[in-house]
Amino acid sequence: MSVKAPLPHDTAGLHVAGSARYIDDIPVPANCLHLAFGLSNEARGVITGADLSAVRAAPGVITVLKATDLPHENDVSAAAHDEPLLAQGEVFYHGQPIFLVVATSHLAARKAARLANITISKRPAIITIDEALSANSRFEGEALVWNNGDAETALNTAPRNVEGSIEIGGQEHFYLESQAALAQPQENGDMLINSSTQHPTEIQHKVAEALGKPMHSVRVESRRMGGGFGGKESQGNALAVACAVAASQTGQPCKMRYDRDDDMVITGKRHDFRINYRAGFTKDGKILGVEFVHYARCGWAADLSLPVADRAMLHADNAYYVPAMRIESHRLKTNTTSATAYRGFGGPQGMLGMERVMDHIAHELKLDPAELRQRNFYASQKDTGPKQRTHYNQKVTDFELHEMLERLTDTAQYAARKKAVSDWNANNDILKKGLAFSPLKFGISFTLSHLNQAGALVHIYQDGSVHLNHGGTEMGQGLNQKIAQVAASEFGLPMERIRITATDTAKVPNTSATAASSGSDLNGMAVKNACNKLKKRIIRILSNHWETTQSDVIFTDGMVQIGHHSMSFDAAARLAYESRVSLSATGFYRTPKLSWDRLKGRGRPFYYFAYGAAITEVVIDTLTGENRILRTDILHDAGTSLNPALDIGQVEGAYVQGAGWLTMEELVWDTSGRLQTHAPSTYKIPTCADRPDVFNVALWPGENRENTIYRSKAVGEPPFMLGISAFLALSDAIAACGEIYPALDAPATPERILKAVNRVRLG
Amino acid sequence: MIWGVSGNAAGELMNITFLLNGETVALCDVDPTRTVLDWLREERGLKGTKEGCNEGDCGACTIILTHESDSQKAASAVNACIMLLPQLQGKAVRTIEGVQSAQGDLHPIQNAVIEHHASQCGFCTPGIVNSLVAAHMRGATDHDDVLAGNLCRCTGYAPIIKAANAAQAENVPEWLADIPDNLNITPNSCAPENADELAEWYMNNPHATLVAGATDVGLWLTKKLVEPRQIGFLNRCTDLQQIIERENDIWIGSGVTIDQVQRAVKARYPGFSGMLRYFASTQIRATASLGGNIANGSPIADTPPILIALGARLSLRRGDKRRVILIEDFYIEYGRQNLQAGEFIEGIIIPHQPDGLKVYKISKRFDQDISSVLGALNIIEKDGKVQAARIAFGGMAGVPKRAKAVETALIGRDWNRQTVEDAQTVFSHDFIPLTDVRASAEYRIEVAQNMLLRVWLESHGQTVSVREVTP
Ligand SMILES: Cc1cc2nc3c(=O)[nH]c(=O)nc-3n(C[C@@H](O)[C@@H](O)[C@H](O)COP(=O)(O)OP(=O)(O)OC[C@H]3O[C@@H](n4cnc5c(N)ncnc54)[C@H](O)[C@@H]3O)c2cc1C
Ligand code: FES
Ligand code: FES
């Protein structure tokens, strides 16, 4: 069977040869035009003048569009209709697009875009969380509060308390392929869009609105992205709409790709958070109650900030049973780029809040941090006691972490290494080591329940080869390979008989974004559903043909067997065709069992949970704050993996990305709201040498208790949060410099580490 | 209407001849500001070379360059995005399309990347493959170093390293042998063939922008979008690419690349060459020149503080006139160097001396990052006393600057912790650093002070670098 096999990425052969096509590689007609935005150089103000004559006169410029030149909707928002393609009268962040240059080359468009003379009358800009709080600048009117039990009483009566606060920086996606789109006008005013997007249907929808057309006039294709990570869920809308509008005005194909600096200045990033906490616990470290206050900096427009902030609240428990919890979540509106989806979607921030609490308590009680965590875990699934419900009242029925922790601490020799680290620290003044364990429990499903649906379209051709499409998009995660493996298994065919082509809104309509780790769960099931329909039809034909019953049919090894008869799949397809049976079917899936009230914070938002655990060892230099990850051991739960090689790849990549978020990746805005780290020269993502020296990754051999595709589990986002163990290990190393709790903020750059070391040394 | 204009040509249009994937390409009327990446993708339709940043930081545009047959300069990986087309004159280029054989056989590294699941989204992959292929041709096996200039956001790198290791022992495929020796090159006056010609041309065109490796100038073009009026290319001046060991000193031509410097100073000043491992990336080091690093005048350039600490001198030339100055006198203030119109750096002279040099580069990330602070501490101890000290820092002032008060606090004193602690207190006499995106002023000063302590600890046998710690 091809599912569960560690097959390589389906287009790895094209990647290595440089022949995999991304948007900017698609051959275009010679008259293709190129676009660039002219950007605001103020974070907030009223546009009082826009002299674009120099832009229009620049070499190669064909036309320049302002908001008033747009024919229909001027909106590229994900939902709230609060994000104009081009600023209308006012600007709300530094880098906001004000006008659109259409020119004969990418470089000509970029050069011209800098020649405008735009005058902006400045208004006071709100940049930081504190500024937003004092201006009461927020989305949703007020903070969202969830209460489970009576946290205040629990805290007041608890034998011990800790309280504190942690700043958590944002994160740039830094997909290697920057945002890009291509629009090609078709007959009858229709538009074909190629977009580097996780959400073709939304692109279709926004382009249709902008052109004043029904959705059927717009077709969107997405073959692959050079990385997405959530950054291409909504942030590609502006480019696709710009291209479509320019293409419909000029009648020529139009292409737009952001220069890297433009990409980093214009597009949204991970939300930065401040989390205040207060926790009450027993002398042996059992948590009795926790209060969290989340402050999320959302930027100037709503984008996906509300569900992101919700998910942070949903993961405020991480893996622990908290009898009483209160969470207050502030969604702050600021004059910075609109923060957006990023792998984990708020989950990582919420989870880090809880891991901080655990870390702080362990330090306070001088208890082993892994042991303390285990004491507070949800009960193992065998247990039927009361420790089974989350703070939003979902039953945890599949908890794996007790067993996973035992396995991991054993294989990683946690106890022995903990001792070795403390010996090292006793003998070394300058270089200190740290070791930390962190678990994760991540809820799988879109919290907006209606998004949990997917479609597929499967064709069998008369030669027995299979072509399929589904609603998911390929961004490197190997989704197409996993889905092809599902189809190959269903039909008992070798992989080369299955072909998946670009995601296409004309093939599968009304798709959800490939997000929330849902890609293979949803689309795999939809494809299976379509395959089953086709198999039923073939079985009917074959049982008529041989006059046998339909019960014992097997599709395997390229053959179809009924009782003692057998026929090649290809011949069966041929027979079905000649018998005038449809060999094309759609498939559909919707996730069962969900019900969720986000305002009350009650219900079952998640179909199931994915689990993981990591142990990281680091070393820091107390003279400079320089640091390194020495070793990481990971045990991750992907259910019955559809493809262990691809899943391990997701885990490794996610860990390094998660560790990068909390260590070297630092976004810096100046006081006037200018992003100063807008290129890889100043914004540092991990390089090769930053991966752990020793990096052991294993998959937990368990199956999903829920009926997912082959009992697998989603794997895109969850392992990102294993990077938290690196942050905790740094904190552990700093703690070795003295008595007090380091209270490290993220990202833990060398500078922050040195500051924390000094704090701890002073006591 | 002209399609695909890329701005105005900077001065003279040029004739360029090179090998591309084994075939001779002869171009006329080349705009000297055209980048190799743009030309490959837009003109040649070779879309396998990717643009990830357009500034030399991500490696998605990595191509393989072979120079005129010279064993010192075997195949190197370079960044096409900030390399200008005239820099290819007389060289051989391989893009990812030319890494497999004409018959479509994959290079062993390509096969290994597939087998070891080392590509996910695939966008970084051509650049990664090219870096590994070039390293394989050179026999370089420190893959962290080889890949320091290639970012991958998807894989976490572990599978890439597995692939690199797996392919290491394979033979270099014979189809990769490029010998660009017999190319028929038409010279361009703005690309002189030696220092004399350059001196004359530059006297006549004193306002031209000189380009050596273009690792600074390239960014002015791709990011600042400047349109220089005229460019003079140094890459053809082979006499500026020489390193000469003399009786009392080493003479390094201004056009010598950083990776050649790294090799040349390894025996005498291991601290210098050790630091150069953390200068940018393999790609940049193969391109960037020492002269460019000095002339650019950046306060955060890595080599000037080291050269100051070594007491190096610059040989400057204007027409027939030469003068030699101490490199520390070259830096007048931020943005202003001691260089006249029409004058250029011909060579850098490092006097021989006993090695007391320690160099520490502090940055947010170890690899491919700009220094927050770079300290070059050349301290000679004799009989327990500090006999001599030349100390300079980058990132601590508007120019690379000597720490004279610190030197004075050390010289003649006992080499002990007390002396170090006393000297730490006078750093503020030498420096008032700035706060910027890389680091705060307080951090900079504290780290600079701690570097002195680090030297002392190191001289007492302590491990002081996290890079030396193993799991
Ligand atoms: C991604 C990246 C990473 C980098 N990392 C580092 C780093 O870690 N450390 C560091 O120090 N630098 C770093 N740099 C900058 C470094 O590469 C340059 O300063 C380089 O040394 C300049 O050499 P070049 O030959 O490329 O100069 P060019 O770009 O060709 O020229 C630079 C300047 O010097 C002038 N010039 C060149 N040669 C001469 C000469 N002989 N006489 C007079 N003027 C001359 C030019 O006119 C120009 O003004 C980095 C650059 C990039 C793109
Ligand atoms: S495109 Fe990033 S290094 Fe050239
Ligand atoms: S595989 Fe996506 S960036 Fe490397």
- Average pLDDT of chain B works out at 95
Low-pLDDT residue intervals, each spanning 5 or more residues of chain B: 1-8
Rounded Rg of chain A: 27 Å
CATH architecture term of the domain at 242-459 in chain B:
2-Layer Sandwich
Shape type of chain A: globular
DSSP summary, beta strand count of chain B: 18
CATH top-level class of the domain at 242-459 in chain B? Alpha Beta
Largest sheet of chain B: 5 strands, mixed
Strand content of chain B: 15-25%
Helix content of chain A: 25-40%
CATH homologous superfamily caption of the domain at 242-459 in chain B: CO dehydrogenase flavoprotein, C-terminal domain
Please provide a written account of the structure.
The complex is a heterodimer of chains A (763) and B (471). In chain A, 29% of the residues lie in helices and 25% in strands. By secondary structure, chain A is α+β, with helices and mostly antiparallel strands. In chain A, the strands form seven sheets. An eight-stranded mixed β-sheet of chain A has the order 3-5-1-12-9-10-11-20, with helices on both faces. Chain B has 471 residues and is of the alpha+beta class. Chain B has a domain of 218 residues: CO dehydrogenase flavoprotein, C-terminal domain (Enolase-like, domain 1, 2-Layer Sandwich), CATH 3.30.390.50. Chain B contains 16 helices and 18 strands. In chain B, strands 2-1-5-3-4 form a five-stranded mixed β-sheet. In chain B, helix 2 packs across helix 5 and helix 14 runs antiparallel to helix 16. The radius of gyration of chain B is 23 Å and the shape is globular. The N and C termini of chain B lie far apart (63 Å). The N terminus of chain B is likely disordered. The structure holds flavin-adenine dinucleotide and FE2/S2 (inorganic) cluster (FES) (2 copies).
